């Protein structure tokens, strides 16, 4: 049998090896995440240009999206694989009509930026379908009173048939606690204004944290990837398709 000294040396050596491996692992994760953040930042002008071109197109159904970088599709392999792109495709398939997408989203937008920069543009449009997913960027400096005040102002300016989403799950820690408080506000204000809520939190929470980290997020470990955006789209799709099916079946005019 090995002596007690050899056992002690082995234990210390194993602990040092594990500590070293953990340190290297953390370093590699940080390096990968940093590189991923740079790559995703490079996507912002590309995706913005895509949606500007889409806005110029003609379409029988006008779909307007209000949101932040997730609505832009940052993290997807291409803008069409964002949740907005996937929903537009579903509307085309379900209605047999052409769809014009006006993506009124802004990377990094909080509720205040949406109110100041996005909602005035919505007021000039006559959309058939509207989706709203905003508020996740308010979580870092979360103030419940301010959140409710700004959310209520934004929701009050929406068309009656707009579909709003609650915030996605942040899975763990203080951020998730804040998200749950924010989502209580989202559901209460939406109910008061008779707006339907897409269950984004429940849908994303249904993905375990480990599985999401490995499969559903982009290289920055925050934004969804193609698979993650398909999950987001699934939270909206039943309500979006119901709204699309309710459109006048007659020959529509091109919307502006």
Account of the protein in words:
58% of the residues lie in helices and 10% in strands. Helix 3 runs parallel beside helix 9, helix 4 packs parallel to helix 5 and helix 5 packs parallel to helix 6. About 10% of the residues have low confidence. The termini are far apart. Strands 2-1-3-4-5 form a 5-stranded parallel beta sheet, sandwiched between helices. The protein has one domain: SGNH hydrolase (Rossmann fold, 3-Layer(aba) Sandwich). The protein is an alpha/beta fold. It has 9 helices and 5 strands, in the order H-E-H-H-E-H-E-H-E-H-E-H-H-H.
Overview in brief:
With 256 residues, the protein is an alpha/beta fold. It is 58% helix and 10% strand. Strand 3, helix 5 and strand 4 form a beta-alpha-beta unit.
Overall 3D form: globular
Second-tier CATH architecture: 3-Layer(aba) Sandwich
* Strand-pairing-aware structural class: alpha/beta
- H/E element sequence: HEHHEHEHEHEHHH
Number of strands: 5
Query: How would a crystallographer describe the biggest sheet?
Result: 5 strands, parallel
Q: List the domain count as a whole number.
A: 1
Total number of helical segments? 9
Strand order, main sheet: write it out.
2-1-3-4-5
Under CATH, the topology can be stated as Rossmann fold
Task: State Rg.
Answer: 22 Å
